[in-house]
Amino acid sequence: MSLPPGARADWTIDQGWERYTQAEHDVWITLYERQRALLPGRAADPFLRGLDALDLHRAGIPDFRRINEELNRLTGWTVVAVPGLVPDEVFFEHLANRRFPAGQFIRRPEQLDYLQEPDIFHDVFGHVPMLTDPTFADYMQAYGQGGLRALGLGQLHNLARLYWYTVEFGLLQTPAGLRIYGAGIVSSHAESIFALDDPSPNRLGFDLARVMRTPYRIDDFQQVYFVIPSLQALLDATLSDFGALYAYLSDAKDIAIEAVLPEDKVFTRGTQAYANRA
Length: 278
Ligand code: PHE
Ligand code: FE
Description:
Layout lengths: L21 H17 L6 H9 L10 H12 L2 E5 L5 H9 L2 E5 L16 H8 L6 H20 L2 H13 L2 E4 L2 E4 L2 H4 L2 H9 L4 E4 L2 H5 L11 E5 L2 H9 L3 H9 L14 E3 L10
Parallel strand pairs: 1-2, 3-6, 5-6
Antiparallel strand pairs: 3-4, 5-7
């Protein structure tokens, strides 16, 4: 990847909020209203609280200057605009400094349900509400620092799975039942339903080494979701030095994506019917 024309050395650009068209704002509004109606009783409380605190409202694509005032006050995080995917090192460097790089563009009306690259709806609606939670805010910064370190150690492959199964596709255990907090789920209408209600996927208790040995799919709904008991438990599990874990992982084999192991804490033993459909 090379620095896109017009981007700064850290790959950020101006959001250019004034330049969004009404049609682009309308895409945001459509997606926002659909998810806002679906998520109560499905999304974790910190997510729903964050959504309201930031007032990611119905009027259209949010102006980063506006959401940053509140976000910065709450947890010291800032959202910065980038043209699209950025190199790993740039991404981790931003996270380690409490800056979340968000895509500036929005999907086209004919791409409401699927797109390959994260856009502003996935990045801002999906990721930013959780950054208003102090514990999750610390976790994301620690992940950035850990990412820089893993990059130097050639261990990104395993660490990326931790991001995937928590930040993107994580489930949270609550007294009221399982809730979604992963950005890849909460920003997807269909997966917000599938992740909680479909009999197909496994839903297993989070275990750090186990997660880092489990591959994931980027092309379809997940075959396994991992459930954390609390955000604090997630942060605590990742505070230790990963050096020994990386050494162990370099000899350990991957675990098949659909496997349920004897030591797994099983919330749901999935049928895998969706993954195995003809
Ligand atoms: N403790 C991890 C390390 O030593 C860093 C980390 C924290 C990684 C949180 C991911 C999430 O590398
Ligand atoms: Fe994402």
